[in-house]
Amino acid sequence: MNKIPVGVLGATGMVGQNYIALLNDHPWFEVRFVAASPRSAGKKYKEAVDGRWQLARAYTPSVGELVVADANDVSQARAAAKAGSCAFVFSALEMGKDEIRALEDSYAAAGIPVISNASAHRWTDDVPVLISEVNPHHADIIPAQRKKRGWDKGFIAVKPNCSIQSYTTPVYALIRAGYEIKRLIVTTMQAVSGAGYPGPASIDMIDNVVPYIGGEEEKSEQEPLKILGAIEGGAFVNAAFPKISAHCNRVPVIDGHTACVSLEFGDRKPSIEEVKRIWADFKSLPQELNLPMAPKQPIIIREENNRPQPRKDRDADKAMAVSVGRIRPCNIFDLRFVGLSHNTVRGAAGGGILNAELLKSKGYIS
Amino acid sequence: MNKIPVGVLGATGMVGQNYIALLNDHPWFEVRFVAASPRSAGKKYKEAVDGRWQLARAYTPSVGELVVADANDVSQARAAAKAGSCAFVFSALEMGKDEIRALEDSYAAAGIPVISNASAHRWTDDVPVLISEVNPHHADIIPAQRKKRGWDKGFIAVKPNCSIQSYTTPVYALIRAGYEIKRLIVTTMQAVSGAGYPGPASIDMIDNVVPYIGGEEEKSEQEPLKILGAIEGGAFVNAAFPKISAHCNRVPVIDGHTACVSLEFGDRKPSIEEVKRIWADFKSLPQELNLPMAPKQPIIIREENNRPQPRKDRDADKAMAVSVGRIRPCNIFDLRFVGLSHNTVRGAAGGGILNAELLKSKGYIS
Amino acid sequence: MNKIPVGVLGATGMVGQNYIALLNDHPWFEVRFVAASPRSAGKKYKEAVDGRWQLARAYTPSVGELVVADANDVSQARAAAKAGSCAFVFSALEMGKDEIRALEDSYAAAGIPVISNASAHRWTDDVPVLISEVNPHHADIIPAQRKKRGWDKGFIAVKPNCSIQSYTTPVYALIRAGYEIKRLIVTTMQAVSGAGYPGPASIDMIDNVVPYIGGEEEKSEQEPLKILGAIEGGAFVNAAFPKISAHCNRVPVIDGHTACVSLEFGDRKPSIEEVKRIWADFKSLPQELNLPMAPKQPIIIREENNRPQPRKDRDADKAMAVSVGRIRPCNIFDLRFVGLSHNTVRGAAGGGILNAELLKSKGYIS
Amino acid sequence: MNKIPVGVLGATGMVGQNYIALLNDHPWFEVRFVAASPRSAGKKYKEAVDGRWQLARAYTPSVGELVVADANDVSQARAAAKAGSCAFVFSALEMGKDEIRALEDSYAAAGIPVISNASAHRWTDDVPVLISEVNPHHADIIPAQRKKRGWDKGFIAVKPNCSIQSYTTPVYALIRAGYEIKRLIVTTMQAVSGAGYPGPASIDMIDNVVPYIGGEEEKSEQEPLKILGAIEGGAFVNAAFPKISAHCNRVPVIDGHTACVSLEFGDRKPSIEEVKRIWADFKSLPQELNLPMAPKQPIIIREENNRPQPRKDRDADKAMAVSVGRIRPCNIFDLRFVGLSHNTVRGAAGGGILNAELLKSKGYIS
């Protein structure tokens, strides 16, 4: 089978490198186009990342030979699309929000679907923020989006912030099972890779934690409401619940965001056993479609009292599963648990690839 | 002035070492008696801690020359007391709870006041759990305790768990200012020194956090209620509020426990500015008495958005102040903040020494 | 093809767990027998390691169901051997040296070959210390060993200390190419997993290095001389060179030992380019035999000036390759370089498995 | 006594902050002038470092109120000098070497002595590179330097790189005692604070070491030779020995550089006991003059086999002493040991202050 040729925008950055590495040997997609800042443009990819490659996993030799395009120059992608080497792009752009938004629009307008990791378009009312297991039906706003904007083949779909991935899927699983969730207080302990490279200085992360990440609490509180929301008249309407209060911390961990959650149900309250059963049994569309990047079990329950832990659990099921543990009653609300997910895979490039697989399955990319 | 001679039980352990180090140059107290397990008994202190001394700060040469007594043999302490070299003891014993309780009773029965770091007696109904700034009046149960047990000079007073110190004083300051606190959800990120030596394995603390500390959540939820409680009929009665739900985590930090707190007031709710004013102005009996170990300002407000941080703030004011920051409204309850205190100083040996100073000022030791 | 059934002694410890994990899906071997201390004996393996499993990689369900034998009771292994479920054992025993030596002897005497990770038999004069790429011919002492001891099928072969693996293969490659090496000064920075579990306390490994590892410098200086030595009259005779001086340090790294090496050649001195060529081209018997665990390229050269690094390079080629970098002249001797290898894979379980593959290929196990 | 008013150039950077913090309560000097980049110029110091102050130790309120001058504009310092608020400056400038060299020259030409932390002037042949205990007599090149350059009161004196401080004083002590040292191979494990702020990314320093620091090996090999050299005809002539080969590594430690040293004596070789005696007894001019910043004992011997360690030993004697341990024969050369010193105190600001005290005692500043 011929693989679909894909491009990566911001291919030399931290998330871009993760896309490149995760797409090694992907059964459906093949990286044939890479774009980055003007500084890297014109170099071979292997030259552009020389001394800056952050991952244990390497890129393939053929990607190393690709000449880096200038991400600001959409014409290069358009030419690649015409030449059959770029059917859609993953956007891992790192620049100002307004610039990213404009640039992603340009790619879509040029007929190139954009599956983005950036936050720029998360609050655009016709752009879906997808967690493939939670709101795959949100992808179906794409025809309305295309129509409204006069785009033919292009569209924009994004993924949410990495900080919310450790609890949004478990929360959704409970809601889908019929249990309303009213309120949720969450404290995150987030890995340094979430800040890109170089990210936090080592002098701030040795023998220390930093109880603040700019913008992260707002995203953690608001993005789940869009994801859990509805489509009305070609635009998203936020869910009213759960109300979320977030405390976001940076801790000296390479990969893996951990979340300590206390939540309050509505009138119907499941038992702890029922919660575990719901999570253990949870499957969604990516599992039904058997998508290549989909974890077999989106939520893995750890019964040991000291798990999940980032170093031991982040890589579960291709680093795409959310691990939960310490499932117990809350003294104040109803339920407490600890959730953990891999922020640069599940929470970034891996989640983006899964979204692409979903969008292909639904026929939006080809 | 002649200094009061003091003993340290468990002098070779982590907390014991902190007592020894903090009592260097204390204006009122001088370490003249050290006791530890039979393994160390009979050796000079400097031999007993050779290769096991954990602190950057050294012990004084004269303490190094003290011969270590067997902590299980109260007669050695009694002899030291008679010889004028042990007016009271700090207990940093590390053994089973029942053994500690019995042993601390024996010292008190022998006429030697015990100021303990151990958890053994925290729920004994006539033993005060003291944070000198919060419940100094609880010391006044001592006459009833002595009477009930038939002790003459001896008594037992303890300090609470280190995990609660980052939020209990700020919480108390608000209550004292007239604001009822109904509920409080707290997530702690606790330093490894809190587990004694060797404590957590490095393989569990490099690139990792552990979302569990045995017994810590229960202590974090219950101990504040005794501290905020009342004395009735010679025994303590717990406060009914605040209801607390705790998530306790171990993080790769040497010293300094950080707490992320969301709390709900009763009907009267202070503004953020009022909260800050109350904390900035908070002083209590140790400050009024100008006790040597008392921080000038028990609660220090950090206005930077990324503080307090363990490495930068734990040593504030002799490592005895609680630093608070990120004071802001809560989306769900009323107030969010981050509290930080030094667990082996404020939360252990330093807090114990301050308690001793308070008890001396009140005339219970001499 | 039917897989050869193998046993793991000390299966619940750190190295034992690595054996279990690495033998998942091994094409030749299958774990069918596990033995550990009496504390674990009688439990299912999954129960025995519950809450103690240290690795990100999991064990297979079928291994989880194995009932743990008592490693001290050789009759259990003998029964398993008879029943066709234990053709040989990997020894990852953790006990006193004398006990290990005696116990390994008993297994061999019972007809069960022992491929050991322990240091107990490293200086036994008829026991080969194997690095499969360096001294595969040392395996051929086995007939003499069997004869001398009156063993029929059993034998003992061991692997060297993990600390020497980062430089012994590169050193050997140069010697094999005809360049005598006279002297070598090496400073290692070793990972905490090398000390087993729990290993170094986190309080000693956060914001710290420890410039001492008991016994490690002696092993680092002497073991290479046996490995590079000759067989004479059924016993090993050490090589006279290179003379080695080692400084061994523990650093806060999970896996991966790094070595900074300065070495002096004999009269013939290769150029830096020649050194690189020799290392890049180096292959040995495991590569010729295409053994399953053999790295394709035993020595990987990193040209970036800040590599190799443990986190980025330890996993190269199934964590079985040695990565070298910073290849440059020495101001005092002739050559400087940095070597790195994965201590629990290449330096322990992975190296042991490769040795077993070699011994099978040579017909010593079947 | 009136304190001498001093200035700090680059006062907002990492080393500058250390100067500010260490000069709190200095008995001779008082910070009255601070200069930094144009970005900070015009602000109060407390505003300029708001959110950027890296140290646990705070600056004094009076320094906080100083208005930051533009370090590029020497006229501001000249005015301060005239006004009696800047008798000399500590230079902690962070810019290109050529710019620093030119700027430091301008200050000196303006009559303001410059005691510099920067490397710019270390190889200027009439500029002394001072370790106060090692080559205090090198200060006496200042009259020749002034004469050659036509400077009246101004001069330039610098301190060496932080990486050499853990072994240069011990090496010198042996040389002074009459033992020639021919060759020395050293491997350093250096703290992240040595790279300034932000310095190494946390993603490179968690679960990792980096075996490279740009330019550090060259400095480590060459600077000691100037320090141990002689003055001939108003210029420095390097010592011929010891020949040094250095391997420099970055490790996840906040403060404190550790060095593993193997060294070869000339024909006369001291015993290990003699080495210890020489180091234990070593005192030099700063100790004789009883300079405020001088450690009582410049070299502290740790007899425990696992010391010195950065976290436990870096702060010895105001963080100004070098701690040495593991003193033992070398298999290849004659002597092995581990040296440790605090890189931002002894190796930077503290060493600079001690140099200033020395220069004042010698009458070069007043």
Automatic annotation (TrEMBL), chains A, B, C, D:
Pathway: Amino-acid biosynthesis; L-threonine biosynthesis; L-threonine from L-aspartate: step 2/5; Amino-acid biosynthesis; L-methionine biosynthesis via de novo pathway; L-homoserine from L-aspartate: step 2/3. GO terms for biological process: diaminopimelate biosynthetic process; lysine biosynthetic process via diaminopimelate; methionine biosynthetic process; threonine biosynthetic process. The active site is at 162 (acyl-thioester intermediate), 257 (proton acceptor). Keywords: Amino-acid biosynthesis, Diaminopimelate biosynthesis, Lysine biosynthesis, Methionine biosynthesis, NADP, Oxidoreductase, Threonine biosynthesis. Residues 5-142 form the Semialdehyde dehydrogenase NAD-binding domain. Catalyzes the NADPH-dependent formation of L-aspartate-semialdehyde (L-ASA) by the reductive dephosphorylation of L-aspartyl-4-phosphate. This is aspartate-semialdehyde dehydrogenase. It comes from Leadbettera azotonutricia (strain ATCC BAA-888 / DSM 13862 / ZAS-9) (Treponema azotonutricium).
